[in-house]
Amino acid sequence: MSMNQPSVRSIVDQLDNLIAQPIYSINPDALKKYEDEYFGQKCSKSKEMIDAAREVIPGGVQHNLAFNHPFPLAFDKASGAMLRDVDGNEYFDFLQAGGPTVLGSNPESVRSKVIELLNTCGPSTGLFHEYEAKLARLISELIPTVDMFRMLGSGTEADMAAIRVARLATGNKHVLKMGGAYHGWSDSLAYGIRIPGSKFTQAHGVPLTYFRYTDEFFPGSLEDLERKLKAKKFRGGTAAVLIEPIGPESGTRPIDKEFLLGAQELAHRYGALLIFDEVVTAFRISEHGAQGYFGVEPDLTVFGKVIAGGYPGAGGLGGKKEYMKYLAAGIQTGDKVKKALIGGTMAATPISSLAGYYTLKEIAETGACQKAAAMGDRLTQGLRDLIAKHDLPFVAFNQESVCHLETVGTMHFSINWSKPWTIPNVLKETSKRKREMEHMGAAYMAEGLVTLAGSRLYTSAAYTKEMIDEALTRFDRVFSHVEVLS
Question: Mean pLDDT score of the chain, rounded to an integer?
Answer without folding.
Answer: 93
